Amino acid sequence: MAKGFVTAEEGHVVLVEPPPGTTLAAALSGACFNMENWGHVTIIAMGGAGSSANALTINECTGPSGTGATAMTFRYAKESSTGGDTLDAALAWASTASLGATANVFIVAEIDADELTDGYQYIRPDIAAGSGKALACVAILSGGRYQEDITATVIA
Fold this sequence. Notes:
globular, six-stranded antiparallel β-sheet, mainly beta, Jelly Rolls, about 40% strand
């Protein structure tokens, strides 16, 4: 029988953007995290209550504070209904992905470390300004070079 992926032991979770206490009124620049020792990241951007069509952009960066941020193309799929677990289609390539105007939807972005430009080892997801939607974002890193019971921080 196939074994699943145990996130707490074989991966690393980054709270890129915590759920806000209110709906979004300005652009969000998420936490910048280091991919140096990881082979893959899954980024999940979630839009809660509200009707704004905020867009996700993913930047590759040369430094931990977002230095040299450059928007990159990425593969993504989206849950755009209120079903909760039905992605619209297979992964597609884009430079930005809209959460749409429906409440309680999400985007799943998939990035392999070897897709980053040489000299860019950091990633920073951003969500464009809008109004009327509560947003949150989490990243799950996998394919670690050094596996330990407790993985080291990737946010410098």
